[in-house]
Design brief:
heterodimer; A: 224 residues; mainly alpha; MetI-like fold; B: 281 residues; alpha/beta; D-Maltodextrin-Binding Protein, domain 2; 2 domains; 5-stranded mixed beta sheet; elongated
């Protein structure tokens, strides 16, 4: 009978190695969230207020990214781009690029839902007061809209955190990749991957709870 | 008199070493003969694809300092870098990317375990340096495995065998066990141990040299062939090689000359890594 979870020392003994992978995961996650947030808002504004040609381009981008598995985008960024344009991208930037491209589409739709929920009268009122469209979007529309979409945004942030694990396929030395290497050396996948599950939970759960708490604090500011 | 003799011997040893190194370095192609070597020298880095695969390339996960890698693949990479006057730049790969990364110029050489297959030979070249054989293993508590006495007993419709997709074992399993069910899995591990422990497959393939390490860590397994715990297996001899991109004749010839010069060191390193696997806690 194969023993189950009898030797967790494999995790303790290799804490530096796994810790290095965890740091890479956190860096990838934070970087992706920052880039996705910025690009998602810009894309949503472009799709809502932009000229028709821009709206069509953004819509095509959003639909394409939402229809393509992240793994495919990642492999294309890592292998196809060098073969197509002769530029070799290291694994970490390729993974960051893929995560950002894919999640930005979802961020765009989340932000756009928030923007669309703001009554049109607010834009008219702002224009009547002599504000420019850019000012109204920046100071009136977006602050309310982004508060309203904090809950789905929290879900997106958690999703990006979990999706960083896909980067192990192109050998980014993230936490999952390090866990896999350790497992192949020690033949103890049960202990290692169960520990990985717990650590991913400890990493992501507090962030989603914080976003939830933040929403509860600022929810009233998003009402109009 | 003694001091004079010692000085003479020391001078002779230094001269011999220098001559050996000179003759070693003389194998490096001249500028213009190998675009790959010229590019490596220009960049100052030898990019090597690395993936833990004991005993051929071992990642030292518990090391706080020093080289992060060991094994014949690593010492080969260091020697080539030394001869070319550059530093080694390890680039992590996975089982899925270790061949494709050569074609996309992500690395100059892949030094993890690579075995030639017809599909791989179409896209990359190999520099052979060692050989291994195959074993199969499964849970001793599995009735199908408990019943089996020889490798041939696994060639049965009620047996499911696992292998890692893209490896030479795929073709071997299909030819050697035509009656059994064959399943490929995607993993960066050295053997699909998870398939066995989860009882999704009855048996899986593993390199002969990796069996002692596996059995030390995972109890309750049965290996085939059973004689001498599979260590004398002659099933499916597999060449162990470094990989390089296609159409690099001068580079390949140079690497082959380095392998020939280092054959003793590479074998010693392989044996040392094997012993460490057996004795690891």
């Amino acid at each position: 009978m194969v023993d189950f979870m009898t030797d967790l020392s494999v995790v303790y003994d290799n804490w530096r190695y796994l810790g290095g992978g965890l740091l890479v995961t956190v860096c990838l996650w934070v970087s992706a969230v920052v880039l996705v947030t910025i690009s998602g808002i810009l894309l949503a504004v472009a799709r809502t207020y932009g000229p028709p040609w821009l709206v069509r381009i953004v819509a095509f981008y959003v639909d394409t990214m939402r229809s393509t598995p992240l793994l495919v985008i990642m492999v294309l960024a890592y292998f196809a781009l060098p073969l197509a344009v002769g530029v070799t991208i290291p694994a970490f930037p390729a993974a960051l690029l893929a995560l950002t491209l894919e999640a930005s589409a979802y961020a765009c739709e989340i932000a756009r839902a928030g923007i669309s929920s703001i009554r049109a009268g607010q834009m008219s009122a702002g224009l009547a007061l002599g504000m420019s469209k850019a000012q109204i979007i920046r100071k009136v529309i977006l602050p309310q809209a982004l508060i309203r979409v904090l809950p789905p945004y929290g879900t997106l942030v958690a999703g990006i955190g979990k999706n960083t694990a896909v980067a192990s396929v192109i050998a980014v030395p993230d936490f999952l990749q390090q866990s896999t290497v350790l497992s192949s050396q020690t033949f103890q996948p049960t202990e290692i991957f169960t520990s990985a599950l717990v650590i991913y939970f400890i990493l992501i759960f507090p962030v989603t709870r914080m976003i939830d708490l933040l929403y509860r604090k600022v929810e009233r500011l998003g009402r109009s | 008199m003694l001091n004079k003799s010692l000085s003479t011997l020391t001078a002779a040893a230094c001269l011999t070493t220098t001559l050996c190194q000179a003759s070693f370095a003389a194998d490096v192609p001249a500028p213009g003969q190998s675009p790959r070597i010229d590019a490596i020298k220009a960049s100052g880095k030898l990019r090597v694809g690395v993936l833990n695969n004991p005993p051929f390339l071992v990642e030292k996960t518990g090391a706080a300092s020093g080289d992060a890698w060991d094994g014949p693949g690593w010492i080969f990479a260091k020697q080539v870098a030394k001869e070319l006057g550059v530093t080694v730049d390890p680039v992590r790969v996975s089982n899925e990317t270790k061949v494709a990364i050569l074609n996309s110029n992500g690395v100059d050489i892949t030094v993890t375990l690579l075995g030639p297959t017809p599909e791989r030979l179409k896209v990359i070249d190999f520099v052979d340096y060692s050989a291994t054989h195959q074993c199969l293993y499964g849970l001793a508590s599995n009735p199908v495995i408990a019943r089996a006495k020889t490798v041939n007993d696994l060639n049965s419709p009620d047996v499911e065998l696992s292998f890692i997709i893209g490896t030479p074992q795929e073709q071997w399993l299909k030819e050697r066990f035509p009656k059994a069910k064959i399943k490929g899995v995607v993993t960066s591990s050295t053997t699909p141990i998870e398939e066995i422990m989860a009882r999704r497959s009855d048996a899986a393939t593993i390199q002969t040299v990796q069996v002692p390490g596996l059995q030390r860590k995972v109890k309750g397994l049965k290996v085939f062939p059973q004689e001498n715990n599979c260590l004398d297996s002659k099933e499916e001899p597999q060449t162990v090689a470094f990989g390089i991109d296609k159409n690099q004749a001068a580079f390949k010839k140079y690497l082959q000359s380095v392998v020939a010069e280092m054959s003793g060191q590479l074998k010693s390193s392989e044996n040392k890594m094997t012993a460490e696997m057996v004795n690891a806690r």
